[in-house]
Amino acid sequence: MIAAAASLRGVRLGVITQSAESELPDWARGAMYRHWHVDNVLDTEQLIWAITGIAKLAGAEAHRVFGAYEQAQVPIAEARERLGIPGMSSEATRNFRDKARMKDILRAADVPCARHALVDSADGGARAAARIGYPLVVKPPAGAGAISTFRVETEKELRSALALRPPSGEHPALLEEFVRGEEHSFETISIGGRPVWHSLTRYSPTPLDVVRNPWIQWCVVLPRETSNPVYDDIRAAGTHALEALGMTTGLSHMEWFRRSDGSVAIGEVGARPPGAQITTMISRANDIDFLAAWARVMIFETFTPPVQRYAVGAAYLRGQGNGRVRAVHGMEAAAREVAPLVCDYRLPHTGQEPTGSYEGEGFIIVRHPDTAVVEHALERIVSLVHVELG
To answer: Is residue 362 classed as helix, strand or coil in its secondary structure?
Structure first.
């Protein structure tokens, strides 16, 4: 992302990090105009200090301030407001960041989403669960990437999950209806509050299943047919949701479900780029540098919608067992079948420590004009490749 923003004509890029400048790679230090180190990138006052410091060194005012990290969106917006820098308001970023507040806004706007409740005690959680119904999902209101998220089937499981991080008035827990169906994502570029482009993906299985079962090697498919009328309902619901939440200019990542009856339900929305290699997948599907396109949106508020030529899929290679990576089995067999389709990869290596992430120890990304070919290739990869820990 540093390289993408620094590559744009007319940009002098200042970078604020919790890492010392000496810890950054040589190419990053060479790409940026100025660097400023802070102890806590989530502290609004430190961000203001860093932004004003970089501007003073540059001898010019800061024109744009943005970042990709989910947890930093509110302090970034607060710093922009204090310094008079254009960008999404802190009020709007809280709508995206606080998932309970988000659900309240979406329901008030008649956007289809999961039933939910914010609870400050285990007993309150049990009462709310009785209203919502089991199974349900327990998560922190400001979570991201399925972190600290649990599916529970009974009151006993609910109380066990809440005991891991006891809810309180200051730190409540969010309970949500567990939506049964296929899970997808919906990515949107908006300029001045108007959606100008979208993409979408399908998860197999759902991220929550992946978090609960560390052995599952899962996949994400970005189909060629993103403009198919079958997605008209989520395009309409997604646009309505972004309007209700206050999206102005930027990239959003929405998680949504297709219920077994065909209806849609929005899970949650982030006002930031997606994870799980989806930005790379979008780049490959459209033959563009999507990170540079996102940076151009955030800096210059311009975007030229690309023409999608490919379906793309990612298979995430996850270790089986405990310990370091001992061996990777089946890679040669997988290469014989899918090598011509591979466009990006990061393979596990012997001795590697597990990442602890739902993305696993590596990934393989494939692309082809035919979505069915991509889906078959992913199926073969996760069937053939086995990462052994020990």
So the answer is: strand
Strand order in the sheet with 319-320: 319-320, 386-389, 325-329
Give the domain 115-177 fold: Dna Ligase; domain 1 (3.30.1490)
310 φ/ψ angles, rounded to the nearest 5 degrees: -135, 155
pTM of the model: 0.89
As assigned by CATH, the class of the 182-389 domain is alpha beta
Q: What's the rounded Cα separation, in Å, for the pair 181 and 33?
A: 47
pLDDT at residue 170 is higher than 90: no
Model pLDDT for residues 55-84, shown as the tens digit of each residue: 999 999 999 999 999 999 999 999 999 999
User: Nearest CA to 64 among 22, 112, 11?
Assistant: 11
> Do 135 and 114 form a contact (C-beta atoms < 8 A)?
no
Q: What is the pLDDT of residue 359?
A: 87
CA distances to 15, 183, 184 from 231, rounded to whole Å, are: 38, 13, 11
Comma-separated ranges of CATH 3.30.470.20 domains in the chain: 182-389
Where, residue-wise, is CATH 3.30.1490.20 in the chain? 115-177
d(C-alpha 56, C-alpha 299), whole Å: 19
Residue spans of alpha helices (H) in 213-351: 232-245, 278-286, 290-300, 331-338
pLDDT of 176 strictly over 90: no
